[in-house]
Amino acid sequence: MLCYVIEGKLCLGPGGRMKVEITDWALNSYLELLHKRVFTVQEYKLILRPDAVLLQDGIPSPHAKLQNAKFWGPATDSAGNVIAHGFKLKWHNFGNGQIQLRVCVGLLNGQAYLCQGFVKSSDKTDKRECAKLKVYLRDIAIGRYTSRGFL
Amino acid sequence: MTIFTTTDEQKIEVYQIATEMKKAALPARFITEAVTLASEYEGAFDLMKLWANEDEIEEREHICADLEDLIDAHQERPSQPITKPRIDFDQLETIGNDIVAFKKKLRQEVDKRGGITLLAEKTGMCQPSLSRFFNSASMPRRTTLYRIAHAFDLPESEIATEWIR
Lengths: 151, 165
Fold this sequence. Notes:
The complex is a heterodimer of chains A (151) and B (165).
Chain A: E1 3-6, E2 9-12, E3 20-23, H1 24-35, H2 41-53, H3 64-67, E4 72-76, E5 82-94, E6 99-108, E7 111-119, H4 123-141, E8 146-150
Chain B: H1 8-23, H2 28-38, H3 42-52, H4 57-76, E1 82-83, H5 89-112, H6 115-123, H7 127-135, H8 142-152
Helix pairs in contact in B: 1-2, 1-3, 2-3, 2-4, 3-4, 4-7
């Protein structure tokens, strides 16, 4: 993979693609969200997956959508501190339920890891999920996680 | 140092929160394992701190369920990255339905033997964690299934499922 880090930013070489790995945590959160009818298979295929695939072109992204801070930005913990390596994809007023859908993403080891999806029903939910993200990022950093393949 | 390692100051706070959890009558097994996890993982410490600062019972229950899930996940984490077979998104709905049906059947066995409250008592798990387990479509963890089987002396056949983490 033609990918390297300059001043903390993940960059891609010519023709390079960033790997986007689906963790087992992410897969199980999708199972739950799908079962709760948070999104449909069609919405996943037409909106959610294509948006996540944009990550393959690296960060900083050449895509306007990933340059929009309302859609893509750093995750913060319960104390308001930026979570190192932790980011969020944010869909506002998503679907018929007009919900706030979030997918937490880890950027480390020169690639992206989809960590978990959730509905941000309140700030409290967001804080809990961001705490879990820190646990997942630590396990990824020490190589103790389960993968379900790549996007 | 690995990212998100609990600091010494935070570790001291973990023990203070554990005392509060004991006063709130949370199971000793749960508290002990939460303390162990939060003494290493800053994210788990954050959850314990959120619990300590929370007034709403329902939110506290969510936090306990999150912690319990992380505890079980921690016990099962691989020693190095492993890749499980890929699952196509088109299959997820069917898989979710299978998991829900499996959990419904298991819940019936639990109810025959005294129900969730007794199960929580016997396993040392928080009741909200068990409620979340039985009501969710996520794949069950082996650790959770073994705890349930052990509590009610269920045979292996009752906890056998294709979809296990």
